[in-house]
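Section 5.1 Outputs to date
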Amino acid sequence: MDINQILRTWKEVFEKWRYFLLALFIAAFFYSLNVLVSGWGSLAGFYSSYGFLKMLNLFGVLFVGFRESITTSSFVGLVIISLMLGMLFSMLIYKHHIYASTKDEEYGIFGGIGAFIAALVPGCAACGIGFASILGLSAGALSFLPYDGIELSLLAIGILGITIFKTTKNMYVCMVPNTKNILPNASKSLKGGKK
């Protein structure tokens, strides 16, 4: 599959506003989860002191200013992973609407592994950002990585990239069942009418 075919497939999927908005929604949701996890203590304290509306206001401030609380490489990795995750799930839903296939489950699982790695430590193990802190892994336990968790972000980006490529490549491939099991004599009758 050449790059032009990939771009045409993406254009066909994302020119439909439903799938474009779905991709953006999923990307924003994943980004928001990372903001929520990193600012959980502040948000909980704000809620108990000032109430729900002030907590939402603080969440908005944290959402917009999240770039300032993590390293540049972590932020870039998080944005790329968020967009790729939104793109992948939007494409899988588009493909499912075209026709259901068992291959979708395989790509969904592969993409799910990439999403889990991306959510675990989205690039800043030393900062303790990501769902690793929820699982009880402290920043010190993850800082043994030589590049402070950037390698996990690159791994997640690689897995999501491969999954997006495979999903794009097989977007319009229809799985045809084996006719030998259904019609044992089908191969003989399909040879130009000769027996």
